[in-house]
Design goal:
The chain is of the alpha/beta class. It folds into three domains: 185 residues, Glycosyltransferase; 151 residues, Glycosyltransferase (Alpha/alpha barrel), CATH 1.50.10.20; 270 residues, 3 Solenoid (Pectate Lyase C-like), CATH 2.160.20. It is built from 18 helices and 36 strands. Helix 11 crosses helix 13. It is globular, with a radius of gyration of 27 Å. The chain starts with a helix and ends in an 11-residue tail after the last helix. It is an enzyme of class 3 (hydrolase). GO terms for molecular function: pectate lyase activity. It catalyses: [(1->4)-alpha-D-galacturonosyl methyl ester](n) + n H2O = [(1->4)-alpha-D-galacturonosyl](n) + n methanol + n H(+). Belongs to the pectinesterase family.
């Protein structure tokens, strides 16, 4: 009887938790993509699902720009029922239909309501039916008069469709609903036709393949016009997602490889690094003014519209007259449209790994030299030049004039890797960051060589200057057993991008005399002082993850150093057990650590910083934040000896200032 009561109580608790799960997102797209499984099992989610079912037309598609979570009146429900048979305004523009299919899939994963499955399958049939014989898709289907009949890559419409079909045709677990074999075969054919259309529409500029336009005539496959200010042009934005889709295809054909190579070369050729966009917002966060500011060595951006034969950017008002600069058009279009984009940066970031994986050799990206001594492949299955990474490092030339690249195929490489100081200009490129893993299990107790044993625990040690690493996991696997370094960097001009750095205590050691180091798009996790050392290091767009209550940073910045550890646009996250984490404490009393524009989770203690029982550090260390957000950002509760930067002070924290070196702009190479 007691056991029965306990079971009933647990059921009630779980049911209540699911029923009361709350959605915290306002945007329909965010509701679909950011909520977890618990929410999709909730009463609130099921209520919204009824709206989504009502909006779906019988043909299988949905209209666009609808906030489907908003409550409907009785009259609105009647109107939607009446519209079902009309197929009015069904489209794939602005993510419509594809995102609603994803919603239904996520609902069905938690609530086995057969209507959700039926809705999803109707969506597939709609996408298949809407495809042209030449492989393209119109913006609206059934066809709507005007430019809507053009094959449209605009706002990634066709790429969204192809990504849906790719998941289904490959029978992945991305969608919870598994169509019949017949439908899977249809999606395979449709996907292949779509890729063929992409290859046929890649624009040739004076005989050279470049990128893609936003729209094409559905008959002639020539560049086409849409709205008055959307003239035929090469697109810096839409071409990015197209290229990434092609790069996602396993064992690509020669035609696909050529298309990707050509697009990458065009992105390199057309990137803009002497302009950056400045936005003025009103109190509601709406853009009221955009200005392009001349800068030096800015982060690369691309124009949305470029001339077909010259790549020259242009801008248009609603009169359709081309202008050469953004400030020459009216404020309504200037501020209400995305004229520049940074999306191609993802192509450039991933290209080296893709090229190496698929045997594509381009001197500008993967192979700095045709000499064999400047490019090696490491593969555990014996298909490369070496089986072990250290063997490949040992074979590299000392103090080379050119960059040396090691491409490392997927596998778990259980070895300690040392990049000696004479192996300069070395680049490690993993086949994929999740599956190219360098791992070892040394820790302080295991080394047992006295008080400095920590520094011998590394999995990877970098001593050679001008080192870079991409698409790797570097891990210390000893567990929570004291000091155990995953990555130790004691070198200058080091770039680590798109990597996972995993460990517990002392995960990442950063040092070197006057050393400047740059981490971008990385995931770094640990427990106590898991980012420590005396280097000047910029972390940009990284996720910093705490495993338990302790300290994130322990800087030992030398006296008189302008910058120490700087975190910009990073996310601070934690395991559920970590609820009281400090941003940092001073390993040495002149420690400097600053967080700018970061999203700080609620695991960070309100006081933020600790002095490590060093009262003098409260006067000599420099701990600061600026314009952060999140539940853990509580500036009014921080220790009094920390700082909240002014806007003017924060403006000094540019990548150029932080990473300034005798080799100019090394971080953009």
């Amino acid at each position: 009887m007691i056991l029965k009561k306990i079971i009933i109580l647990l059921v009630l608790l779980v049911t209540g938790f699911v029923a009361n799960a709350q959605n915290t997102y306002k945007n329909w797209s965010d509701i679909i993509r950011k909520n977890g499984a618990v929410w999709f099992a909730s009463v609130e989610a099921q209520k919204i699902a009824e709206n989504v079912l009502l909006y779906q037309r019988d043909i299988g598609g949905w209209p666009k720009n609808i906030q489907m979570q908003q409550e409907l009146t009785s009259q609105q429900k009647k109107d939607l029922i009446a519209l079902k048979k009309t197929a009015l305004e069904t489209t794939t523009d602005n993510g419509a239909t594809c995102q609603e299919m994803l919603f239904m899939s996520r609902m069905y994963a938690e609530v086995k309501d057969e209507r959700y499955k039926e809705s999803f399958l109707k969506g597939i049939n709609y996408l298949l039916e809407a495809q042209y014989a030449n492989g393209g898709w119109p913006q609206f289907y059934p066809l709507k008069k005007g430019y809507y009949t053009h094959i449209t890559y605009n706002d990634d419409s066709m790429v969204n469709i192809l990504n849906v079909l790719k998941q289904i045709s490959e029978r992945t677990d991305f969608y919870s609903i598994k169509p019949s074999n017949e439908i899977v075969e249809k999606t395979k054919k449709a996907f292949n036709k779509g890729i063929d259309c992409i290859l046929k529409t890649q624009y040739r500029q004076n005989g050279v393949l470049t990128a893609w336009c936003a729209q094409y005539d559905e008959i002639t496959l020539t560049p086409a016009k849409a709205r008055a200010y959307e003239l035929p042009s090469l697109s810096g934005k839409e071409s990015a997602k197209i290229t990434l889709l092609l790069m996602s295809i396993e064992s690509p054909s020669a035609e696909i490889s050529t298309a990707v190579k050509s697009a990458q070369a065009w992105f390199e050729k057309t990137k803009i690094t002497n302009l950056e966009e400045k936005r003025v917002l009103n109190d509601d966060g709406k853009i009221i003014e955009k200005k392009m500011i001349v800068t030096s060595n800015g982060a690369p951006i691309w124009a949305r519209f470029m001339e077909l034969d010259t790549n020259e950017p242009f801008f248009c008002d609603r009169d359709g007259i081309k202008k050469k600069s953004l400030d020459q058009i009216g404020s309504e279009r200037r501020n209400g449209y995305a004229w520049y984009t940074d999306e191609p940066k993802e192509v450039l970031k991933k290209y080296a790994g893709w090229a190496a994986k698929n045997g594509v050799r381009m001197e500008t990206v993967v192979t700095p030299s045709k000499k064999k001594e400047h490019y090696f492949t490491v593969a555990q299955d014996g298909t490369g030049d070496f089986i072990k990474i250290q063997e490949a490092v040992n074979a590299c030339p000392s103090f080379p004039y050119e960059k040396v690249t090691l491409f490392i195929k997927n596998g778990i490489y259980t070895e300690k890797v040392r990049i000696p100081e004479w192996n300069t200009h070395l680049t490690l490129i993993g086949e994929s960051k999740e599956n190219t893993i360098i791992a070892f299990d040394d820790n302080f107790a295991k080394i047992n060589s006295g008080r400095n044993s920590t520094f011998y625990t590394y999995t990877v040690l970098v001593e050679g200057d001008d080192f870079s690493a991409f698409n790797l996991t570097i891990k210390n696997t000893s567990g929570d057993n004291g000091q155990a370094i995953a990555l130790s960097v004691v070198a200058n001009r080091v770039q680590i991008s798109n990597c996972l750095i995993l460990g517990n205590q002392d995960t990442l050691y950063l040092s070197g005399e006057n050393a400047k180091q740059y981490f971008k798009d990385c995931y770094i996790e640990g427990t106590t002082d898991f980012i420590f050392g005396n280097a000047t290091t910029l972390f940009e767009n990284c996720t910093i993850h705490s495993i338990k209550d302790s300290f994130i940073t322990a800087a030992s910045t030398p006296e008189g150093t302008a910058f120490g550890f700087v975190f910009k646009n990073c996310r601070l996250t934690a395991d559920p057990v970590a609820t009281a984490v400090y941003l940092g404490r001073p390993w040495r009393i002149y420690a400097k650590t600053v967080f700018i524009n970061c999203d700080i989770g609620n695991h960070i203690r309100p006081e933020g910083w600790q002095n490590w029982s060093k009262p003098e550090a409260e006067k000599k260390a420099f701990y600061a934040e600026y314009n952060c957000k999140g539940e853990g950002y509580q500036p009014q509760k921080r220790v009094l000896w920390s700082h909240q930067l002014s806007k003017k002070e924060a403006e000094k924290y540019t990548i150029e200032n932080i990473l300034q070196d005798t080799v100019p702009n090394w971080f953009s190479n």
